[in-house]
Amino acid sequence: SLVRKYNCDICFTPMIVATDFLRSVKARDSEFTTNELQFAAHDAQTLADAACVVAPFSDGVDLNCGCPQRIHNNLRRTVDLCQKAESAGVSWITVHGRTTEERHQPVHYDAIKTIKDSVSVPVIANGDIKYLRDVESTHQLTGVDGVMAARGLLANPAMFAGYEDTPLQCIWDWVDISIEQGTPFTCFHHHLIYMLERVSSQPERKVFNSLSSTSSVIDYLQNTYGTVQDLGT
């Protein structure tokens, strides 16, 4: 809900284990809250069954093949996998440009470009998208049809709207959404920790990270950064 306010075209749930989703009513109630689902599954039937459950209520289902296991050391294996996925009828393919062993190493843009050139469906690049300028540079290097971001959007949900850092309006939008949706405090607080990391000092982060209630967080934000109304004064 938050990133859609800031020019994000498509967003998925966090990865949901399809087996647990099918087995547990509690899991379905807690995890199925949006209209784009992302599943992880070990077998085709489990994925298909989970997709059928959400199909009447969702716009799309994403199959997560294991972040960040999307590039093989033998690139031919990855190309073959993507071509098989295309033959199976997927609408598009997102490629995280790292191998299984890599975490924060540079993205293999050449591999993403090879995959883009090897299939006809749209290809989305994932990895190291932290600022809007990274979108353009990734497109130039790979020719992909779009980009996906995870950690970049955690740090700045307004990134795709062109903001270098999380704007105050976005922070208060998150407060409003969390209160409206009844977001658990741990999740509410944790996202704000990400969002404030670039714009706060280490002493400020130490104080903020120790807060333990929604009211104390709101008081801190008002006293430290002001309200949205203050922007116009």
From TrEMBL:
SUPFAM superfamilies: FMN-linked oxidoreductases. CDD domains: DUS_like_FMN (cd02801). It holds the Pfam family Dus. InterPro entries: Aldolase_TIM (IPR013785), DUS-like_FMN-bd (IPR035587). Residues 71-208 form the DUS-like FMN-binding domain. It comes from Goodea atripinnis. This is DUS-like FMN-binding domain-containing protein.
